[in-house]
């Protein structure tokens, strides 16, 4: 083998470097870059500098996966609206997945094009979280595309928590490409929100995840719409494990549910609803039918979604359970687990705002001090007041109740592997204050198994 300095590849590179000395990095022309992105298949694009304050919470994550990042290229790819609006969710899911695949291909082609001009680039996944080693204690994605898209001037987030593009509405997929080069002109948020606050997303959502007052229940949406994704799959597999026989399993899971899960596993995960996207009339290209005849729009688009006979998946004791029974008597409620089970105290605290049931907290006003000991030491304050929850580091304010727990025991209790009475008797969990307040806390977080 040739010595390193005489290796053909090493000699070639050094000759190239001598004949073509590297010049200082020049910012990419934003107009030319925009044309490149549109030619690659994007329908709109904007550029955001890495140190934009509005995405500061993503800096560390982005630089960890791609340290030379200087610019984020945010782009959108349009969906076929009618395919998403149909009550036949098989058609809607086909459109979702086809557009996600297209957006991933756009991002991949951009990275290849950048490589040819000497620009380093990286394209994280467009649609689905893939950092499963962090699930469920931390976010399982590298980039939050929505805030980047907002900063790139591609729209604003509506009350349904989807980005609404001023022209294309919410019928879009979002993608982000990281590059190691600055551009000549960066984009900024548009000066209005395309959301017209028609509340049709509120009316269409089968689990009441979107409140008319702008509130949002992550757990309700996650449990039903993403039933055949991560958490629902976990719950399904545990149902199999807990079944005594095939006949016992069939009592718990219908044939259509088993077939649907097989379809999601063999093809791609199916959303159960996403009716909020289907019903949204916002956007210049989208709004005409709604403004021309609102009653006809509701009859043709919203009512078929509301009237559809289907199974709705909810956590027992959740706001969603009560909502479905009250608003959609034509739909069948099935009580399930969300599949979310924290693996750490950090995960427990991180998940509280996501799992909070605001209507179950009606009339509750209390400060909870948590002290966790053992393998994971942590102190935290949880305040529940005015149907809102706040989680803070350390012990703040005067507690109405204090809970001290061995961290492993507490996690075992949440996972239904430890008995609360046993833990209290063994002093693995100690409570100072009214146990009724602990029961009230558990009612606000039914997924957490605190009863």
Automatic annotation (TrEMBL):
Q: Which GO terms describe its molecular function?
A: iron-sulfur cluster binding; metal ion binding
Q: Does the keyword Translocase apply?
A: no
Record-annotated membrane-spanning stretches:
none
Q: Does the keyword Cytoplasm apply?
A: no
For this protein, the record's InterPro entries field holds:
4Fe4S_Fe-S-bd, 4Fe4S_Fe_S_CS, SCP2_sterol-bd_dom, SCP2_sterol-bd_dom_sf
Q: Which residues form the 4Fe-4S ferredoxin-type domain?
A: 186-215
Q: Which UniProt keywords apply?
A: Iron, Iron-sulfur, Metal-binding, Plasmid
For this protein, the record's PANTHER family field holds: IRON-SULFUR CLUSTER-BINDING PROTEIN (PTHR42827:SF1), IRON-SULFUR CLUSTER-BINDING PROTEIN-RELATED (PTHR42827)
For this entry, the protein name equals: 4Fe-4S ferredoxin, iron-sulfur binding domain protein
Q: Which organism is it from?
A: Nostoc punctiforme (strain ATCC 29133 / PCC 73102)
């Amino acid at each position: 083998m040739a010595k390193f300095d005489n290796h053909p590849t090493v000699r070639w590179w050094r000759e190239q470097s001598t004949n073509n000395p590297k010049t200082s990095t020049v910012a990419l022309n934003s107009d030319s870059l925009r044309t490149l992105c549109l030619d690659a298949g994007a329908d709109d694009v904007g550029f955001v500098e890495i140190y934009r304050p509005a995405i500061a919470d993503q800096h560390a994550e982005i630089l960890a996966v791609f340290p030379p990042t200087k610019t984020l290229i945010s782009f959108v790819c349009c969906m076929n609206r009618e395919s998403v609006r149909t009550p036949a969710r098989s058609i809607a899911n086909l459109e979702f997945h086809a557009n996600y695949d297209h957006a991933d291909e756009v991002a991949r082609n951009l990275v290849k094009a950048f490589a040819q001009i000497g620009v380093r680039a990286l394209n994280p996944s467009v649609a689905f979280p893939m950092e499963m080693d962090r699930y469920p204690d931390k976010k399982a994605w590298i980039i939050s595309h929505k805030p980047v898209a907002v900063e790139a001037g591609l729209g604003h987030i509506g009350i349904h928590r989807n980005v609404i593009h001023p022209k294309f509405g919410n019928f879009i997929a979002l993608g982000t490409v990281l590059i190691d080069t600055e551009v000549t002109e960066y984009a900024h948020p548009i000066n209005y929100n395309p959301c017209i606050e028609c509340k049709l997303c509120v009316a269409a959502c089968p689990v009441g995840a979107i409140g008319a007052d702008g509130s949002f229940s992550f757990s309700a949406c996650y449990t039903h719409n993403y039933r055949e994704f991560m958490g629902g799959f976990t719950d399904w597999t545990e149902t199999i494990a807990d079944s005594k026989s095939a006949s016992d399993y069939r009592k718990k899971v219908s044939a259509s549910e088993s077939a649907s899960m097989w379809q999601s596993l063999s093809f791609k995960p199916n959303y159960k609803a996403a009716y909020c996207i289907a019903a949204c009339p916002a956007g210049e290209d989208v709004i005409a039918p709604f403004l021309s005849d609102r009653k006809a729009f509701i009859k043709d688009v919203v009512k078929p979604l509301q009237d559809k006979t289907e199974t709705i998946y909810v956590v027992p004791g959740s706001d969603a359970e009560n909502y479905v029974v009250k608003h959609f008597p034509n739909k069948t409620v099935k009580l399930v687990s969300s599949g979310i089970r924290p693996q750490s105290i950090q995960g427990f605290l991180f998940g509280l705002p996501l799992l909070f049931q605001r209507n179950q907290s009606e009339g509750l006003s209390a400060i909870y001090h948590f002290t966790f000991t053992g393998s994971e030491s942590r102190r935290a304050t949880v305040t529940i007041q005015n149907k809102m929850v706040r989680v803070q580091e350390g012990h703040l304010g005067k507690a109405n109740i204090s809970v001290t727990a061995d961290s492993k025991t507490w996690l075992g209790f949440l996972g239904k592997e430890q008995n609360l009475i046993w833990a209290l008797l063994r002093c693995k969990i100690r409570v100072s204050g009214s146990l009724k307040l602990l029961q009230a806390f558990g009612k606000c977080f039914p997924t957490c198994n605190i009863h």
